Amino acid sequence: MSKSRFTLSPEHMPKTLREVVEYCGMDVAEALVREYAGGRIWVPGTWHAKHHLASVLGEDMSRRLVSAFGNSSMDVPRSLLTAAGRQSVIRQLHAEGWAQRDIARQLRCTQRAVSELLSRSPMVQKAGGRRRPSDPRQIDIEDLLR
């Protein structure tokens, strides 16, 4: 089952991008990662049409960024998601029925990374010292045999 798009929650993002989303919107955060991933940018104190931000992000987005973060530098993360956030989103999309290839395309990672994450099912300690998969839909074999 393939979905066209998912809604990214700021709680899965690095702190810098959460602040950008809060003050400027998700579109600005996505544009920053797309254009400046892994780099440091200088946000000028006043907006200028000739500044690099305006030519890359466009007038509206660069104005919002300057008004919120003007006269400061900003380290732009390489991804919109933290490692823990990526894992959470992969599990969420998989539970919603997304195919692994579609998850990989949506998150811009490899299908192998998605597959490996999903194969490492978290285990929960059960009473009596036994370990069982944490997926509540899965029946424990010992419970089935009783």
Structural notes for this entry:
- By secondary structure, this protein is mostly helical.
- It has eight helices and four strands.
- The strands form two sheets. It has a two-stranded antiparallel sheet.
- α1 (15-24) packs across α2.
- The longest helix has 13 residues, at 83-95.
- The mean pLDDT is 85.
Give the SSE layout.
Layout: H1 15-24, H2 26-36, E1 40-43, H3 52-57, H4 59-69, E2 72-75, H5 83-95, H6 100-107, H7 111-119, E3 123-125, E4 131-133, H8 141-145
Antiparallel strand pairs: 1-2, 3-4
Helix pairs in contact: 1-2, 6-7
Question: Can you give keywords for this protein?
Answer:
146 residues, mainly alpha, two-stranded antiparallel ribbon, 50% helix, elongated
Strand content: 5-15%
Rounded mean pLDDT score? 85
Structural class estimated from helices and strands: mainly alpha
Give the helix proportion (percent range).
40-55%
The main sheet comes to:
2 strands, antiparallel
Report the count of strand segments: 4
Short description:
The protein is mainly alpha-helical. Strand 3 and strand 4 form a beta hairpin. It is elongated.
